[in-house]
TrEMBL record:
<keyword id="KW-1003">Cell membrane</keyword>
<dbReference type="InterPro" id="IPR036719">
    <property type="entry name" value="Neuro-gated_channel_TM_sf"/>
</dbReference>
<dbReference type="InterPro" id="IPR036734">
    <property type="entry name" value="Neur_chan_lig-bd_sf"/>
</dbReference>
<keyword id="KW-1071">Ligand-gated ion channel</keyword>
<feature type="transmembrane region" description="Helical">
    <location>
        <begin position="257"/>
        <end position="281"/>
    </location>
</feature>
<keyword id="KW-0407">Ion channel</keyword>
<keyword id="KW-0406">Ion transport</keyword>
<keyword id="KW-0472">Membrane</keyword>
<feature type="transmembrane region" description="Helical">
    <location>
        <begin position="322"/>
        <end position="341"/>
    </location>
</feature>
<feature type="domain" description="Neurotransmitter-gated ion-channel transmembrane">
    <location>
        <begin position="263"/>
        <end position="377"/>
    </location>
</feature>
<dbReference type="InterPro" id="IPR002394">
    <property type="entry name" value="Nicotinic_acetylcholine_rcpt"/>
</dbReference>
<dbReference type="InterPro" id="IPR006029">
    <property type="entry name" value="Neurotrans-gated_channel_TM"/>
</dbReference>
<keyword id="KW-0813">Transport</keyword>
<dbReference type="InterPro" id="IPR006201">
    <property type="entry name" value="Neur_channel"/>
</dbReference>
<keyword id="KW-1133">Transmembrane helix</keyword>
<feature type="signal peptide">
    <location>
        <begin position="1"/>
        <end position="36"/>
    </location>
</feature>
<keyword id="KW-0812">Transmembrane</keyword>
Amino acid sequence: MSARGSWPGVLGLGPRPLRLLLLLPLVAGRWGPAGAGGAPGGLAEPSLVAKHEDSLFKDLFQDYERWVRPVEHLNDKIKIKFGLALSQLVDVDEKNQLMTTNVWLKQEWTDVKLRWRPGDYGGIKVIRVPSDSLWTPDIVLFDNADGRFEGTSTKAVVRYDGKVTWTPPANYKSSCTIDVTFFPFDVQNCSMKFGSWTYDGSQVDIILEDQDVDKRDFFDNGEWEIVSATGSRGNRTDSACWYPYITYSFVIKRLPLFYTLFLIIPCIGLSFLTVLVFYLPSNEGEKICLCTSVLVSLTVFLLVIEEIIPSSSKVIPLIGEYLVFTMIFVTLSIMVTVFAINIHHRSSSTHDAMAPWVRKIFLHKLPKVLCMRSHTDRSLKIGNS
């Protein structure tokens, strides 16, 4: 018997079974743990994980009503851990008394209707759920100035024990009373007050998570510096109910370098120019031109400050008062200059002789009071020379 024909006889197999035997390794490699549908290392199939998650969502939200407060008993209270993370101080509008900020509202509570056993759903312990699909506390910013009281709708992280963590970003324009007395070296104290819009303290209680505002991702502002940002918890009593709220106080300080270089120093320089007017000779006509130019310049600076500060009669900045008094001083100097030039150009042909009482007061008495030589002393000195 030849070697070619001995193999089927020895194995007791025909040609077709022999081909199937030879194809077994290929089939095992194709449909093994690393083949189609299998995951290397013995992990669960992705399709199976998706099925478990789909089944979990269906079981959790099949009869879930997001309008109903998730408690086991009617008198149970939901405790909300509330925190604030500041990402950017966008702007402080002194004119309209607004503070614009970008923040993240960190809220954490327990939803008893969102609990499951991880072993029943392939070991799933955490899911991400859109905030529009579950109950969320209606915590809003009370002192909002633009009508937008809520943050952005984002997904919430839900754990198997019912713990829900929701951190939506928000852009707020909050009201802030601006005190511009020491502008531009002023320090402002602005606050943001958060609380539930409809629930009282017996239904939803707000707990301050951290007294300090989270500023790990804060982007610096070029005009303002945050000195401190702290939170505190308070209660407001209304008839038989009490309403908890969280207040965050922001102490911000203006960086004065820009206004010092381009506002304060030029104003002080113009003030000194007013004094130099009296050192010009009386026969120079540029005295009035210089005074008028200084007055116009101070008016322009006063208009610039008026565009920055709020239009309020309660508080007037010191620099504004300084400019107003300087303008009054410049106006008086213009009047004195006009009077001096008029006296300088007087002559016997244009005006009558000086009255005796005027001569006595201004030429004899007043020079002695001012420690100056009188007109008589000057005449004697000129005659002797």
